[in-house]
Amino acid sequence: MILEAKKIDKKFPGAHVLRDVSFEIRESETVAIMGKSGEGKSTLLHILGTLDTPTSGSLKICGKEPTSSHFAKIRNEQIGFIFQFYHLLEDFTVLENVIMPLKIRRSVDEKRALALIEAVGLKGKEKSLTKHLSGGEKQRVAIARALVTGPKIILADEPTGNLDETNSQTIQKLLLSLAKGSNTAVVIVTHDEEFAKLCDRRLFLKEGQLYNARA
Amino acid sequence: MITLVVWLVVVFLSVTEGIEKNWIQKLTALNAPLRIQPTSEYYNSYYYNVDRYSSASNYLSKTIGEKARSLISDPYDPDFDESLPPTVHRPDKNQDGTLLDPVKSLTKALNALGDSVPGLVFQDVEMSGALLRLDLYRQDRVNSSSEVRSQLTNVSFLASFPEKNPSLKDLILEPTEEDLNHLLFLSNRLEDERRQAVLQNATIVELETNSDLWRIPLDLIPDGSSFSVNAYQHRGDISHILIPTNGEAASKIEKRNGRIFFSGADGAEMPVDPEIPIFSHGKMTLTVDSSSDMSFDVRTNLQANTLVGKVGLEGLAVKNAAFALKKEGVSPLWPFLNEENVLVLPKTEKETGILIAKNFKENGVRIGDAGYLAYSAPSISGSKEVQLPVYVCGFYDPGIMAVGNKCVLVPSEVTQAINGSDSAFTLEKSEANQVFVWFPKIGEAKKVKEALLEKLQASGIDKYWKVETFQEYEFAKDLMQQFQSDKYLFAMVGILILLVACTNIISLLVLLVSDKKKEIGILRAMGAKKRSIASIFALSGAFLGVFSCLLGVFLAFLTMKNIDHLVGLLSLLQGHEAFNAQFFGNSLPHDISPKALLFATIVTPLLALVAGLFPAIKASRLKPVDTLRSE
Lengths: 215, 631
Description:
The structure holds two protein chains of two kinds.
Chain A: E1 3-12, E2 15-25, E3 30-35, H1 41-48, E4 56-61, H2 71-77, E5 79-82, H3 94-105, H4 110-119, H5 135-148, E6 153-157, H6 165-181, E7 185-189, H7 193-197, E8 201-206, E9 209-212
Parallel strand pairs in A: 3-7, 3-8, 5-6, 6-7
Antiparallel strand pairs in A: 1-2, 1-4, 8-9
Chain B: H1 2-31, E1 34-38, H2 40-44, H3 46-49, H4 64-69, H5 102-116, E2 121-139, E3 147-160, H6 168-171, E4 172-173, H7 177-190, H8 194-201, E5 202-209, E6 213-215, E7 226-234, E8 237-244, E9 251-256, E10 259-263, E11 269-272, E12 278-281, E13 285-292, E14 295-302, E15 305-311, E16 316-323, E17 336-337, E18 343-344, E19 352-357, H9 358-362, E20 370-379, E21 382-396, E22 407-410, H10 412-420, H11 429-432, E23 433-438, H12 445-458, E24 465-469, H13 474-515, H14 517-525, H15 530-561, H16 563-574, H17 581-584, H18 594-621, H19 624-628
Parallel strand pairs in B: 3-22, 8-12, 19-21
Antiparallel strand pairs in B: 1-23, 1-24, 2-3, 2-20, 2-23, 4-21, 5-13, 5-16, 6-12, 7-8, 7-9, 9-10, 10-11, 13-14, 14-15, 17-18, 20-21
Helix pairs in contact in B: 1-13, 1-15, 1-18, 5-12, 13-15, 13-18, 15-18
C-alpha cells in the first residue's frame, strides 16, 4: 500500500471541508478524485502530500505514519507534485527546474533529468527559461520535475485545468503513460470526466465525503 | 545606506583618532608624556634653601639641572658659612646620616626606569620670562634699494631648549627659501660673516627673477643666438630692449663676435651699444650648476636659446635650495646636529639663536631677524634692564602648550641667567623648573608613572616630587576628555544609524520574502527544509551587510587617501579654510584607524545577519499550501 488515509477530518474556521475520509492507494494505481469546485479536493490532495495537516485522522505513506519533522524528506523522496498553474521557477531554465528536487536532495543526476525532458518531448528546450514556454510545455516540465526523483506517488491538482482540449489530451496521456512506465501511483484531482475515465479508479468528493464512482 | 554609514563612521573615527593622535603627539612632544615638578616640600627643604647660605654655591639657589650636576649634596660648611636662619628647615637625612638628595635620587630612579622602559629619556627644563623685541628689516617693495624697518615686541615665556627630546627635530620647521633669501638680504645689508654661514650650509639649486623684468648680463647671451625682441626708443635712439620669455615680437637681435645687432621691422640692421640694457620680460627660472660665494654658474632657456654664464643675485632670488642640518665646517644659522649628533641652537659672535612659535612665521618673521631679550636685574642703583642680543634661528610647532605661542625656546644658559637675576618676571615655582620624561610608547604613560612613583617611594623622596602624565596636565585635561566623549558620542550615533540601516535590510528582505512566496512554496513542496529556506534569506542579509560594509570601507579608504582634495573643496565652498591648521595640523590624517575598521567590519555584518534573521524566520514559517492553492 502506497498510501493509506484513515478518517481524515479537516476543518477550516467556519467550514468543515473533509469528513471522515478514508481510502487507500496501491502501487502504480491511478486514481481520479472528482467533485465540484470548493468541495475540498485540493485540500485532500495537500493533506495527502503532507503540505497540509488534517484536523484529525491518520495518514500512512509507504506503510509509515510520517511525523512533521520528516515531511520535507518524504515530499522530496516519495511524492511528486503537479499543479494546475504549473508552479515552476519562472526565472530558471527547463533543466534547472527539473533538476531542482535532486539539488534539494543533494544528489544531482543530470542524465536522468535530460532523459525525462526528452521523454516529455522538450528535447532542445533544456536551456529555455520556463517563463517563455507555453502552458502545455510548462506542464510537461512539471511532469518531468515530478518524476525526476522517482517518487512512489504523484499528486496532480487539476493538471489540465488550464490547457486547451488538444493539449489536455496529450498531457493526460503523457502523464499516465510515464507513470505506468515507472510504476508510479497517480492521484489526479480533475473536473474532466474523460480524463477520469482513463484512470483505474474514480472517487467523488461530495460534502466532505468520498464515494466510489460507478462507471 | 549601510555603505554610507560605514563610510561615515570609518572616516569620522579615523579622522578624530588621527587628530587626537596628532594632538597627543604635539602635546607630548614639547611637554613630554610625563613631567615631574618639585613640590612645595622641595622648595621648603633644607636641601633647596641651603645653597643661598653657602659660599660653595656662590650664595645662589640652584636649578634641578645644577643640583644634578653638582658634586656635593650639602654645600654648607658650618665652620666657614654664617649660621642658618631659623626659617630653614632641618635637613632630611638618609639612614646612614648623609643628606637626602632628592635630585640625585630622582636621576637614579629615572635611570633605573630606563632599563624597563625602552627609549626613555629625561631632561630638566627651565622656564622664565622676558620681553622679546625684534627688528624686522625688509626690502622696500617699491624701491628695492631702500628698506623698511618695523619692530615686534612680545612678552614671552622662555623655555630652555630640550635637546634630549626625541621628537624635537620634527617640531622644528626646516628653513625655507624665503628664509634663505632674507638671510642673504640681511647679510648683504650688514656685510657680516653670516653670509659664509648661509652659503656654506645651503645648496642653491634654482634661482628665479624677482620681477617680470630682469636685466640679462651680456655675457650670458651666447654668440650666434638670436631673439625676437621689442625695442623702445628715446629721441630716436634705442633706450632698452625687452626679450619676451614667450611669444613673438616685432624686431630681432642677434649676437655675433661678442656684439649685439638689432634688426627692426624694416630689415635694416644696426649694432647695439653694450650700455643699452637688455631685459628678459616674464618670469624666468635659472638652474644653478655651481656657485662660489655670491657668484652662480647658471643655465636657463630663453626663447630657443640656452643662456649659460655667471650671475650675481641682482634681480634674482633663490627659488629652490637644500639646507644642511648637520654641522660640517662653519655652523649653520639654523638649528643643527653637532659633532655628537645632538641638536643645538646656533650662535653668532654677537647673538644667541632662539626658536619662536611658527605662527610668527605666518606673520612675516623670517630666520635672521634679530633683536634682544630684555629682563630686569638688580643693580646698585636699583633694577636695570638687561638686553640679551638674540636672533630668530628657526620656528617650532608649539602644538599644545600651556603658554601657547608665547613660548620662546632658548639655550639653557639664558633661562639660568634670567632666573638667577631675580628678574621681576617670576613664574610659579613649580612651573619654572621641572623634569620632562619622554618615551615612545605614550599609551603606557600611566604605567610608567606608577613605576616611577614606586621607585620614588622606595628612596623616600616621593614627597618632593609631583609626577603627572599628559592626561593630567591642567591645560590639556579638558581637551583630552573632549576627544574621548566626541569619539564615544559618534560611535553611539554611528551604531544608532547602523540600526536604522539594518531595519532597512529587514524591510528589504521582508519585501523579497513576500515577492518570492510562490517560489518558497514550490521549493517547500519539492522537499526543501524550513532551515534551508531560512538560511537563504539570512545569508542574503549577511551578504548585503558584508558587501555594503566592504564597499563602505573601500570608500572610506579612498576618502582618507584623498582627504586633502576633499578639504580643498570644502574650503572652496565655505570660502575659508575648512579646517584650521593651528587646530587640526597641516593636513588631516590619512590613515584608517584600526579601531574604526574593526568596528565596521565586525559590528556591521553581525547586525546585518541579525537583521536578516527576522525575514528568514518569516520565510520559513510560510505555509506552502497558502501559495500553491489553485482554487
